Amino acid sequence: MKFDFDPKPFIDNARLIETEEELAAFFVRAADQDIIAVDVESAGFYRYYSRVNLIQIATRIEAAIIDPQKIKDFSSFQKFACESTCMWVFHGGDYDISMLARDLEIYIPLMFDTRKGAEFIGMHELGLRSLTEKYLGFTLDKRLQRCDWSRRPLTSAMKEYGLLDAVCLIPIFDYLVAELKTLGRYAWVLEECEFIARQARESQPHEQDPFAFRIKGSSRLSPRSMAVLREVWNLREEIARKNDRATFMLLSNQALIEIARQAPRSISGLNVIKSVSRDFLNRYGAEIQAAIRAGLEAELAGLEKPFKPRDKQELLNSWEGEIAKALREVRDALANEMKIPAPVLAPTGSIYELARIRPETLGELQQSEILHEWQVKVLAEDFLPILQQTPPPMTRKSRRRRRKRAGER
Fold first, then answer.
1. Which residues contact 323 (CB under 8 A, 6 or more apart)?
2. pLDDT on residue 205
3. Cα–Cα distance between 306 and 211 in angstroms, integer?
4. Could you report the per-residue pLDDT of 275-324, keeping only the tens digit for each?
5. Torsion (CA) 211, 216, 220, 221 in degrees, nearest 10
6. What percent of the chain has pLDDT over 70?
7. Of 405, 235, 222, 173, nearest to 310 (Cα)?
8. pLDDT value at position 313?
9. Residue 370: φ, ψ to 5°
């Protein structure tokens, strides 16, 4: 392959957009562009709140860095995204477009995910670095991947790192589209990407897990120590939230386990725990002691995560299990022939659901919405004869019963 893409002119002439006027002007210039590539950086590794800290954006004629820490009004971006007919290109875009929607109310209408495209042509290494090596002939330097993107001013290295990720997406998109169209899979990728974009637009905030304090290593703690762990965990969350710091940077999980196990009642006792920093103790020692006391005096009820037995309808009977096995074998053989991962062709969960419902016609298969439209077109001819089989009389109504746990009635 001949490599003829040079990112240097884009990097050297990139704009740093820090005002609403500059942002609006960029999208005026982008009005006639057929493609816009976007990459988003966040400082979630360092901060309690993961938010958009930097947006790198590129067209075929220019690149820019948008600073959300300086710009408060994103209406020009929101309006352009809503009205544009161009293709928006991301890599691993589900996270980025979710962040744009959640933090800035920017909703991407039509997107192409280069990671998804690489998956559909059968690439095994799906990172952006692998794609730039394959299509552009150079290797991305990923040493700044865990950089604190909330830091200002931006260094020249930070700017170049961020811009490269966006600038490289456009030629990679062109190469991938050509290959996908040759294989007849371009429409498949667009359908998958439309599903990703729709999920991002409709996603709801995750509910906080009330049992998040049950971290690795906590299963060996006594109930009383577990109560202490819960109180100290909640204190760490409160401090991290107040200071917008990543929790592990304040107090490691191992430190929480040791505090819960030893339950020291004095500062000197806390000092013995090596994984607790002196600076943290100087600032929050009294609050840690109060949390320990609260845990030692707390009721022990509510520490165990309630057991939720699987719905009996989720369990396959023996005949349905045979159907699922046959569907998996067909899927695996087709995926191997197409040189794509089997779960891309049909997720295993979807196969179990098909075996459970057993749609017998093409219309029923489409209406079930278990598979996407392109998957139905590829798999229906081989799946339907399996799904149309009549189960033996003995297995039509019988289902496996979940074994009762000790103490259950």
1. 354, 355, 358, 386, 387, 389
2. 64
3. 10
4. 888 889 999 999 999 999 999 999 998 888 776 655 444 678 889 999 99
5. -50
6. 92
7. 405
8. 46
9. -75, -40
The single residue listed with the structure tokens 């299509």 is 135
Q: Which amino acid is at 312?
A: K
> Class of 218-297 per CATH?
mainly alpha
Residue appearing with tokens 């050509």? 178
| Interior/surface letters 102-126, b for 16+ CB within 10 angstroms, e for the rest | bbbebebbebbbbbbbbbbbebeeb
Phi, psi of 65, deg, nearest 5: -110, 125
Pick the CATH number of 8-202 from 3.30.420.10, 3.30.450.40, 3.50.30.50, 1.10.3720.10: 3.30.420.10
Q: Encode pLDDT of 221-262 as tens digits.
A: 999 999 999 999 999 999 999 998 889 889 999 999 999 999
Please, what is the angle between helix 169-183 and helix 186-202, to 10°?
130
Both structure tokens of 18: 């820090």
Q: Where in the chain is the domain with CATH 3.30.420.10?
A: 8-202
pLDDT in tens, 189-212: 999 999 988 887 776 666 778 888
66 contacts 83 by C-beta, under 8 angstroms: no
Give the whole-angstrom CA distance, residue 405 versus residue 106.
Answer: 49
Residues found in the chain: 409
Task: Note the CATH architecture for domain 312-395.
Answer: Orthogonal Bundle (1.10)
Q: What is the 3-state secondary structure (H, E, C) of 268-325?
A: HHHHCCCCCCHHHHHHHHHHHHHHHHHHHHCCCCCCCCCCCCCCHHHCCCHHHHHHHH
- pLDDT at position 103 over 60: yes
Q: Is-cis flag, bond preceding 153, omega within 30? A: yes
How far apart CA 89 and CA 100 sit, in angstroms, is 14
DSSP helix/strand/coil, 256: helix
CATH 1.10.150.80 spans which residues of the chain?
218-297, 312-395
Residue 112, classed as helix, strand or coil, is: strand
pTM: predicted TM-score of the whole model, two decimal places: 0.82
Supply 347's token pair.
Answer: 């997720």
DSSP secondary structure code for residue 394 in this structure: G
